[in-house]
């Protein structure tokens, strides 16, 4: 079998099964595991899948820059944002993450809501300027341009001093086996720190992020209390998350 044919077969199997187990596939095809793993490494370098221990999972399409990500699931994100905004109660302290869906969430908060919003996203902070009863605490640090958020030691130090009722987390990927993950090592650490200071972590998950993986784990799914997804997300994708005791809110 030619290399191109093998890679096409691997991608087709990944699309059908949602994962590749290198050992099983090598036995099925009569190929060495080294050959399968080499093909998987090359496909991963092209951004076509995410290598994990023992095989591969679908790569998240949410790895592009901010402008590119604004075009992904553009219809789903406002609905997810409205469902998230409906969870906020008066006088709560909430943390809104960075990212395209988080900006939509800031826009969706009722104009008369009284609460405190902590964020490390300048974009989110600016959206709340016209909310007279929302106290905004903006975390500073080095600007991570991919997500337009502050990161670094000063951001982590400030985050460690604040406890929140809800953390609305944006992610690149969710998977029952690999948890919540993202494409940058430092960003994963910042998100993990924010989640550790929150009573509840609510993940904003547009459909393309479900059952995908990114290189750096933020936390296992046991850290997540609720996932907000679009109303037409297939139940076949959601069932495993429900079985883990995670509440699913359909937007």
Automatic annotation (TrEMBL):
It comes from the Bacteria. Residues 3-58 form the HTH deoR-type domain. Pfam families: DeoRC, HTH_DeoR. GO terms for molecular function: DNA binding; DNA-binding transcription factor activity. Coiled coil: none annotated. Gene3D superfamilies: 3.40.50.1360, Winged helix-like DNA-binding domain superfamily/Winged helix DNA-binding domain (1.10.10.10). Keywords: DNA-binding, Repressor, Transcription, Transcription regulation. InterPro entries: Carb_Metab_HTH_regulators (IPR050313), DeoR-like_C (IPR014036), DeoR_HTH (IPR001034), NagB/RpiA_transferase-like (IPR037171), Tscrpt_reg_HTH_DeoR_CS (IPR018356), WH-like_DNA-bd_sf (IPR036388), WH_DNA-bd_sf (IPR036390). PANTHER family: GLYCEROL-3-PHOSPHATE REGULON REPRESSOR, HTH-TYPE TRANSCRIPTIONAL REGULATOR SRLR-RELATED. This is DeoR family transcriptional regulator. It comes from Duganella flavida.
């Amino acid at each position: 079998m030619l290399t191109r044919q093998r890679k096409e077969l691997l991608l087709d199997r990944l699309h059908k099964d949602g994962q590749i187990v290198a050992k099983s596939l090598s036995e099925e095809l009569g190929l060495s595991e080294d050959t399968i793993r080499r093909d998987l490494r090359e496909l991963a370098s092209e951004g076509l899948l995410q290598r994990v221990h023992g095989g591969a999972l679908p790569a998240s399409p949410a790895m592009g820059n901010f402008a590119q990500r604004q075009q992904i699931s553009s219809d789903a994100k406002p609905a997810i944002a409205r469902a998230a905004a409906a969870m906020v109660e008066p006088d709560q302290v909430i943390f809104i993450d960075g990212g395209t869906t988080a900006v939509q969430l800031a826009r969706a908060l009722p104009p008369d809501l009284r609460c405190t919003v902590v964020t490390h996203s300048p974009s989110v902070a600016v959206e709340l300027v016209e909310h007279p009863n929302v106290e905004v605490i903006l975390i500073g640090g080095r600007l991570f341009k991919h997500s337009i958020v502050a990161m670094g030691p000063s951001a982590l130090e400030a985050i460690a001093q604040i406890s929140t009722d809800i953390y609305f987390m944006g992610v690149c990927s969710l998977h029952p086996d690999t948890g919540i993950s993202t494409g940058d090592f430092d960003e994963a650490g910042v998100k993990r720190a924010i989640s550790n200071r929150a009573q509840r972590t609510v993940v904003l998950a547009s459909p393309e992020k479900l059952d995908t993986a990114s290189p750096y784990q933020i936390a296992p799914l046991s850290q997540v209390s609720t996932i907000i997804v679009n109303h037409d997300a297939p139940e076949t994708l959601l069932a495993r998350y429900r079985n883990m005791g995670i509440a699913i809110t359909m937007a």
